[in-house]
Amino acid sequence: MTAVAPHPPFTHLGRYRVLRELGRGAMGVVYLAEDDSLQRQVAIKTLLVPEEETSAERRNLEARFIQEAKAAGGLNHPGIITIHDLGREGDWLYIAMELLEGTELKDRMVVGGLPLVEAVDIAAQVAAALSVAHARGVVHRDIKPGNIILVADGHAKLMDFGIARMKSSDVRTQSGTMMGSPRYMSPEQVGGHPVDHRSDIFSLGSLLYEMVSGHPAFEFGNLGELLNAIMRSTPPAPSTWRPEIPPQLEVVIARAMEKNAAARYQDAAGMARDLAQCRAMLARSRTSPSVTPSSPADAFAATVIGDATLAQDRAPEGLPLSPLFNSTAAVQRLLRPAQEEGEAAPRPQRQLGWLAWLFAYVLAGAGAVAIALG
């Protein structure tokens, strides 16, 4: 039996004629509406405040809704949903935004992972969009598959800027099974520490890990175990699940997912550039034979502790690395790729710049190298 969407409690919001409900979440309801003055359809999001909230909490939620809507409305990028209008009709606060026709990324993520080129392309687009948002002082705080729409022309669109910060309930007080977005939270979010743009970078790294491996970076039965793992555990190398994942891509993921924000990419633009390099490499590999490491999981486990100590010793003062600096195993895979017995693995000259950058990155620490890729 097909579910029937509830009838909207109003026919108009400002100049918008409300047609039907499209969906709802914990903090809002989205409607299909017609902008009669411009003769176009839009999506209208309303703020849904739980009845148990006090008047002060309601005012706080509304103030943040307005603040974040204005911030997102100032962003102009093909990878970010367009905000058309912010208004109020009686007790209803609403945002009018671009109506997207496409598929949520969560519906494309299947067991086994996405095609590598597609996954890297999506992540690169999201990173580029985040770089624009971060430059304007806007931090998303809720990067997850449900907030990324894949539209018909192949572009990824990022939605719902700032909504996570609006939620009045503290995720640490929730119990039971995982509820979705906590899976992609950064350690500082989980720990209740101040959050900046580097939190989005961690979340995107965690999302990319899942897109390419087919497994969440952190997956536990209850929320307490999940949050503890995000704070303290290092996930297996993505190639543990999918051996064809190249070490260059593992390094990007590992750097984005450093527990210590100071050891991550310091801007999303840098991550986008590295992902573009990975995508180009993957596209080239489609037409040439590839060499797969014989045991990436074993190599990962064997090298991470020793190389982490070396990296920690060489790191610049004030830039500590996490105890398990998990980029190093992927670098070892690059420096000592598996080969057919008795056969030297060919290394194109163009790869030298990439290897030098990766090796220097491990020795000097995240964010401390200015050598350009490629």
Strand order of the largest sheet: 1-2-3-4-6-5
Distance between the termini: 55 Å
- Helix and strand sequence: EEEEHEEEHHEEHHHHHHHHH
Radius of gyration equals 22 Å
* Tertiary shape: globular
Question: What is the residue-mean pLDDT, rounded to a whole number?
Answer: 75
- DSSP strand count: 9
Please count the helical segments: 12
Unreliable runs: 164-180, 289-374
Which structural class fits the helix and strand makeup? alpha+beta
Strand % is 5-15%
Largest sheet report:
6 strands, antiparallel
The proportion of residues forming helix, as a percent range, comes to 25-40%
Features:
three-stranded antiparallel sheet, disordered C terminus, 374 residues, alpha+beta, six-stranded antiparallel sheet
Structure in words:
The protein has twelve helices and nine strands. The N and C termini lie far apart (55 Å). A hairpin with a 2-residue loop joins strand 1 (12-13) and strand 2 (16-24). It is globular. The longest helix is centred in the middle third of the chain and has 20 residues, at 116-135. A six-stranded antiparallel sheet has the order 1-2-3-4-6-5, covered by helices on one side. It has helices spanning 55-73, 105-108, 116-135, 163-166, 187-190, 197-213, 223-232, 247-256, 268-285, 296-314, 328-335, 351-364; strands at 12-13, 16-24, 28-35, 40-47, 83-89, 92-97, 102-104, 148-151, 156-158. The model is unreliable at 164-180 and 289-374 (pLDDT under 50). It has 374 residues and is α+β, with helices and mostly antiparallel strands.
